[in-house]
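Hi all, posting the design record for the shared folder.

TITLE: backbone redesign
STEP: 1 of 1
STRUCTURE INPUT:
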Protein backbone atom coordinates (compact mmCIF):
# COMPACT_ATOMS: atom_id res chain seq x y z
CA UNK A 1 0.00 0.00 0.00
CA UNK A 2 1.19 3.50 -0.84
CA UNK A 3 2.14 5.44 2.32
CA UNK A 4 0.51 8.84 2.53
CA UNK A 5 1.93 12.14 3.85
CA UNK A 6 0.91 15.77 3.51
CA UNK A 7 1.74 19.35 4.45
CA UNK A 8 -0.81 21.06 6.68
CA UNK A 9 -1.18 24.84 6.62
CA UNK A 10 -3.52 27.75 5.99
CA UNK A 11 -3.09 28.95 3.30
CA UNK A 12 -1.38 26.01 1.62
CA UNK A 13 -1.90 26.32 -2.15
CA UNK A 14 1.52 27.99 -2.56
CA UNK A 15 3.44 25.16 -0.85
CA UNK A 16 6.42 23.72 -2.70
CA UNK A 17 6.62 20.70 -0.38
CA UNK A 18 4.59 18.27 -2.56
CA UNK A 19 6.94 18.89 -5.47
CA UNK A 20 10.08 18.52 -3.33
CA UNK A 21 8.91 15.30 -1.66
CA UNK A 22 7.69 13.94 -5.01
CA UNK A 23 11.20 14.38 -6.40
CA UNK A 24 12.79 12.75 -3.33
CA UNK A 25 10.43 9.76 -3.59
CA UNK A 26 11.12 9.33 -7.31
CA UNK A 27 14.88 9.50 -6.75
CA UNK A 28 14.83 6.87 -3.99
CA UNK A 29 12.10 4.67 -5.50
CA UNK A 30 9.86 5.19 -2.46
CA UNK A 31 6.16 4.49 -3.01
CA UNK A 32 4.59 7.49 -1.27
CA UNK A 33 1.84 10.00 -1.93
CA UNK A 34 2.35 13.56 -0.62
CA UNK A 35 -0.48 16.09 -0.71
CA UNK A 36 -1.41 19.57 0.43
CA UNK A 37 -3.86 19.74 3.31
CA UNK A 38 -5.72 22.96 4.10
CA UNK A 39 -6.74 22.96 7.77
CA UNK A 40 -9.33 25.46 9.05
CA UNK A 41 -7.68 28.03 11.35
CA UNK A 42 -9.56 26.53 14.31
CA UNK A 43 -9.32 22.97 13.06
CA UNK A 44 -5.68 21.84 13.20
CA UNK A 45 -6.17 19.15 15.88
CA UNK A 46 -9.25 17.77 14.10
CA UNK A 47 -7.32 17.66 10.82
CA UNK A 48 -4.46 15.73 12.41
CA UNK A 49 -6.94 13.31 14.03
CA UNK A 50 -8.53 12.69 10.63
CA UNK A 51 -5.15 12.06 8.98
CA UNK A 52 -4.19 9.57 11.71
CA UNK A 53 -7.51 7.75 11.41
CA UNK A 54 -7.12 7.55 7.63
CA UNK A 55 -3.73 5.88 8.04
CA UNK A 56 -1.39 8.71 7.03
CA UNK A 57 2.19 8.08 8.18
CA UNK A 58 3.19 11.68 8.84
CA UNK A 59 2.83 15.34 7.94
CA UNK A 60 4.73 18.55 7.62
CA UNK A 61 3.31 21.57 9.39
CA UNK A 62 3.58 25.15 8.22
CA UNK A 63 2.18 28.60 9.02
CA UNK A 64 0.26 29.15 11.29
CA UNK A 65 0.22 25.78 13.04
CA UNK A 66 3.83 25.10 14.15
CA UNK A 67 3.26 26.07 17.80
CA UNK A 68 -0.04 24.19 17.99
CA UNK A 69 1.68 21.12 16.52
CA UNK A 70 4.21 21.23 19.37
CA UNK A 71 1.36 21.22 21.89
CA UNK A 72 -0.49 18.42 20.09
CA UNK A 73 2.45 16.00 19.74
CA UNK A 74 2.58 13.25 22.34
CA UNK A 75 6.40 13.15 22.17
CA UNK A 76 8.85 15.88 21.11
CA UNK A 77 12.42 15.47 19.88
CA UNK A 78 15.06 17.51 21.72
CA UNK A 79 15.32 20.01 18.89
CA UNK A 80 11.53 20.43 18.72
CA UNK A 81 11.45 20.97 22.45
CA UNK A 82 14.19 23.59 22.20
CA UNK A 83 12.37 25.28 19.33
CA UNK A 84 8.94 25.12 20.98
CA UNK A 85 7.66 24.54 17.46
CA UNK A 86 7.12 21.52 15.22
CA UNK A 87 7.31 21.32 11.43
CA UNK A 88 7.30 17.51 11.08
CA UNK A 89 4.91 14.96 12.57
CA UNK A 90 5.40 11.21 12.57
CA UNK A 91 2.31 9.04 13.12
CA UNK A 92 3.97 5.85 14.34
CA UNK A 93 0.90 4.00 15.59
CA UNK A 94 1.98 4.72 19.14
CA UNK A 95 1.22 8.44 19.26
CA UNK A 96 2.35 11.57 17.44
CA UNK A 97 6.05 12.44 17.39
CA UNK A 98 6.83 16.11 16.80
CA UNK A 99 10.18 17.16 15.33
CA UNK A 100 11.63 20.39 14.00
CA UNK A 101 13.82 20.08 10.92
CA UNK A 102 13.92 23.82 10.01
CA UNK A 103 17.10 24.54 11.96
CA UNK A 104 19.08 21.55 10.72
CA UNK A 105 17.89 22.45 7.22
CA UNK A 106 19.28 25.96 7.66
CA UNK A 107 22.64 24.68 8.93
CA UNK A 108 22.87 22.10 6.12
CA UNK A 109 22.25 24.84 3.55
CA UNK A 110 24.95 27.10 5.01
CA UNK A 111 27.55 24.38 5.57
CA UNK A 112 26.95 21.98 2.68
CA UNK A 113 25.34 24.07 -0.05
CA UNK A 114 27.06 27.40 0.54
CA UNK A 115 30.27 25.70 1.73
CA UNK A 116 30.61 27.98 4.77
CA UNK A 117 31.73 26.36 8.03
CA UNK A 118 30.16 27.70 11.22
CA UNK A 119 32.92 26.40 13.47
CA UNK A 120 34.42 29.21 15.54
CA UNK A 121 32.52 31.83 13.53
CA UNK A 122 30.63 34.96 14.66
CA UNK A 123 26.98 34.67 13.72
CA UNK A 124 24.29 37.37 13.78
CA UNK A 125 20.75 36.03 14.05
CA UNK A 126 18.15 38.69 13.24
CA UNK A 127 14.76 37.90 14.78
CA UNK A 128 13.56 35.93 17.78
CA UNK A 129 10.30 34.43 16.49
CA UNK A 130 9.50 30.82 15.60
CA UNK A 131 12.08 30.49 12.83
CA UNK A 132 14.90 31.92 14.97
CA UNK A 133 13.92 29.63 17.85
CA UNK A 134 14.04 26.60 15.56
CA UNK A 135 17.46 27.62 14.27
CA UNK A 136 19.19 28.31 17.56
CA UNK A 137 20.03 24.80 18.85
CA UNK A 138 21.24 23.45 15.46
CA UNK A 139 23.31 26.65 15.02
CA UNK A 140 24.89 26.20 18.46
CA UNK A 141 25.57 22.53 17.65
CA UNK A 142 27.54 23.66 14.59
CA UNK A 143 30.17 25.19 16.91
CA UNK A 144 30.19 28.98 16.35
CA UNK A 145 32.28 31.17 18.63
CA UNK A 146 29.37 33.52 19.28
CA UNK A 147 25.77 34.06 18.21
CA UNK A 148 24.35 37.56 18.66
CA UNK A 149 20.55 37.62 18.55
CA UNK A 150 19.14 41.00 17.53
CA UNK A 151 15.43 41.62 17.55
CA UNK A 152 13.02 44.53 17.21
CA UNK A 153 11.51 43.62 20.60
CA UNK A 154 14.56 43.17 22.81
CA UNK A 155 12.65 41.38 25.58
CA UNK A 156 11.74 38.52 23.18
CA UNK A 157 15.42 37.97 22.34
CA UNK A 158 16.33 38.10 26.03
CA UNK A 159 13.65 35.51 26.84
CA UNK A 160 14.94 33.25 24.08
CA UNK A 161 18.54 33.43 25.34
CA UNK A 162 17.35 32.75 28.89
CA UNK A 163 16.00 29.41 27.68
CA UNK A 164 19.46 28.46 26.48
CA UNK A 165 21.27 29.10 29.77
CA UNK A 166 23.67 26.18 29.14
CA UNK A 167 25.06 28.10 26.16
CA UNK A 168 25.06 31.56 27.77
CA UNK A 169 28.80 32.08 27.20
CA UNK A 170 28.31 31.95 23.43
CA UNK A 171 25.07 33.96 23.25
CA UNK A 172 24.47 37.72 23.32
CA UNK A 173 21.45 39.94 22.76
CA UNK A 174 21.31 43.29 21.01
CA UNK A 175 18.98 45.84 19.48
CA UNK A 176 19.35 46.20 15.71
CA UNK A 177 21.08 49.60 15.80
CA UNK A 178 23.62 48.60 18.47
CA UNK A 179 24.96 45.44 16.84
CA UNK A 180 28.74 45.47 16.63
CA UNK A 181 30.13 43.74 13.57
CA UNK A 182 31.58 42.39 11.52
CA UNK A 183 30.02 38.91 11.37
CA UNK A 184 30.99 35.85 9.34
CA UNK A 185 27.38 34.76 8.88
CA UNK A 186 24.21 36.85 9.15
CA UNK A 187 20.81 35.13 9.13
CA UNK A 188 17.64 37.15 8.65
CA UNK A 189 14.99 35.18 10.53
CA UNK A 190 12.65 38.16 10.78
CA UNK A 191 9.57 38.43 8.61
CA UNK A 192 10.53 42.03 7.73
CA UNK A 193 11.17 41.08 4.09
CA UNK A 194 7.45 40.28 3.75
CA UNK A 195 6.87 44.04 4.18
CA UNK A 196 9.89 44.92 2.00
CA UNK A 197 11.61 46.18 5.18
CA UNK A 198 15.21 45.65 6.31
CA UNK A 199 16.10 45.32 10.02
CA UNK A 200 18.00 48.59 10.63
CA UNK A 201 21.45 47.16 11.41
CA UNK A 202 24.57 49.26 10.75
CA UNK A 203 26.56 48.56 7.57
CA UNK A 204 29.51 47.59 9.79
CA UNK A 205 27.90 44.17 10.40
CA UNK A 206 29.20 43.18 6.96
CA UNK A 207 32.82 42.16 6.48
CA UNK A 208 34.64 41.19 3.27
CA UNK A 209 33.72 37.48 3.64
CA UNK A 210 30.26 37.71 5.19
CA UNK A 211 27.54 35.29 4.10
CA UNK A 212 24.07 36.84 4.50
CA UNK A 213 21.08 34.52 4.31
CA UNK A 214 17.43 35.56 4.29
CA UNK A 215 15.12 32.73 5.35
CA UNK A 216 12.50 34.15 3.00
CA UNK A 217 12.49 33.18 -0.67
CA UNK A 218 10.68 34.30 -3.78
CA UNK A 219 11.24 34.90 -7.45
CA UNK A 220 13.60 37.80 -6.82
CA UNK A 221 16.16 38.70 -4.13
CA UNK A 222 14.63 40.14 -0.95
CA UNK A 223 15.34 43.72 0.11
CA UNK A 224 17.61 42.31 2.82
CA UNK A 225 19.61 40.38 0.22
CA UNK A 226 19.94 43.54 -1.89
CA UNK A 227 21.06 45.51 1.17
CA UNK A 228 23.64 42.85 2.11
CA UNK A 229 24.92 42.45 -1.46
CA UNK A 230 25.28 46.24 -1.65
CA UNK A 231 27.74 46.00 1.25
CA UNK A 232 29.78 43.24 -0.35
CA UNK A 233 28.23 40.17 1.31
CA UNK A 234 27.61 36.88 -0.46
CA UNK A 235 23.85 36.32 -0.30
CA UNK A 236 21.40 33.39 -0.19
CA UNK A 237 17.66 33.11 0.16
CA UNK A 238 15.70 30.52 2.16
CA UNK A 239 15.00 28.09 -0.69
CA UNK A 240 17.98 25.89 0.19
CA UNK A 241 16.80 25.76 3.80
CA UNK A 242 13.34 24.68 2.61
CA UNK A 243 14.78 21.89 0.44
CA UNK A 244 17.10 20.72 3.24
CA UNK A 245 14.42 20.68 5.98
CA UNK A 246 12.30 18.57 3.65
CA UNK A 247 15.17 16.11 3.13
CA UNK A 248 15.54 15.76 6.89
CA UNK A 249 11.79 15.12 7.27
CA UNK A 250 11.89 12.58 4.43
CA UNK A 251 14.78 10.76 6.12
CA UNK A 252 12.86 10.70 9.38
CA UNK A 253 9.81 9.13 7.72
CA UNK A 254 11.49 6.76 5.28
CA UNK A 255 14.89 6.00 6.84
CA UNK A 256 16.59 7.07 3.60
CA UNK A 257 18.23 10.44 2.95
CA UNK A 258 17.62 11.97 -0.47
CA UNK A 259 20.19 14.04 -2.32
CA UNK A 260 19.24 17.70 -2.46
CA UNK A 261 21.47 19.43 -5.04
CA UNK A 262 19.43 18.59 -8.15
CA UNK A 263 16.12 19.35 -6.39
CA UNK A 264 17.40 22.75 -5.28
CA UNK A 265 18.66 23.46 -8.80
CA UNK A 266 15.33 22.52 -10.37
CA UNK A 267 13.33 24.56 -7.83
CA UNK A 268 15.63 27.50 -8.48
CA UNK A 269 15.11 27.21 -12.25
CA UNK A 270 11.33 27.36 -11.97
CA UNK A 271 11.23 30.19 -9.39
P1 LIG B 1 7.36 34.97 13.55
O1 LIG B 1 6.10 35.74 13.32
O2 LIG B 1 7.37 33.91 14.59
O3 LIG B 1 8.54 36.01 13.97
C1 LIG B 1 8.72 37.18 13.23
C2 LIG B 1 10.05 37.84 13.63
O4 LIG B 1 10.28 38.93 12.73
C3 LIG B 1 10.05 38.44 15.03
O5 LIG B 1 11.35 38.37 15.58
C4 LIG B 1 9.65 39.90 14.77
O6 LIG B 1 10.12 40.80 15.75
C5 LIG B 1 10.38 40.14 13.47
N1 LIG B 1 9.79 41.20 12.63
C6 LIG B 1 8.58 41.20 12.03
N2 LIG B 1 8.42 42.30 11.28
C7 LIG B 1 9.57 43.01 11.40
C8 LIG B 1 10.02 44.26 10.88
N3 LIG B 1 9.25 44.99 10.05
N4 LIG B 1 11.27 44.68 11.18
C9 LIG B 1 12.05 43.95 11.98
N5 LIG B 1 11.69 42.76 12.55
C10 LIG B 1 10.45 42.31 12.25
O7 LIG B 1 7.79 34.43 12.11
P2 LIG B 1 8.71 33.16 11.81
O8 LIG B 1 9.84 33.21 12.76
O9 LIG B 1 7.88 31.95 11.74
O10 LIG B 1 9.21 33.46 10.32
C11 LIG B 1 10.21 34.42 10.02
C12 LIG B 1 10.61 34.32 8.55
O11 LIG B 1 11.26 33.10 8.28
C13 LIG B 1 9.44 34.41 7.57
O12 LIG B 1 9.82 35.26 6.51
C14 LIG B 1 9.27 32.98 7.07
O13 LIG B 1 8.77 32.95 5.76
C15 LIG B 1 10.71 32.49 7.12
N6 LIG B 1 10.84 31.02 7.23
C16 LIG B 1 11.46 30.33 6.22
C17 LIG B 1 11.62 28.96 6.27
C18 LIG B 1 12.31 28.23 5.15
O14 LIG B 1 12.23 27.00 5.08
N7 LIG B 1 13.01 28.93 4.29
C19 LIG B 1 11.10 28.18 7.42
C20 LIG B 1 10.50 28.99 8.45
C21 LIG B 1 10.36 30.36 8.34
P3 LIG B 1 9.26 41.15 17.07
O15 LIG B 1 9.62 40.10 18.08
O16 LIG B 1 9.72 42.50 17.44
O17 LIG B 1 7.80 41.11 16.67
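Okay, here is what came back for every position:
SEQUENCE:
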Amino acid sequence: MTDRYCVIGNPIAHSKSPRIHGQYAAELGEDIQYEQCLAPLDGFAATVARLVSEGYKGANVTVPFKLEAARLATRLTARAQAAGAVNTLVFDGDGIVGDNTDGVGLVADIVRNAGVSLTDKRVLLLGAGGAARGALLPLLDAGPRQIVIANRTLATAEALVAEFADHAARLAVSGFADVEGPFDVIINATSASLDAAVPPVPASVFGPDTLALDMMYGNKPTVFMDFAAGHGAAVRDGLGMLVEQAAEAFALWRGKRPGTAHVLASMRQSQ
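COMMENT: Residues 102, 127-132, 151-153, 156, 189-195, 197, 199, 215-217, 238, 241-242, 245 surround NDP (CB under 6 Å).
Let me know if anyone wants the other runs.
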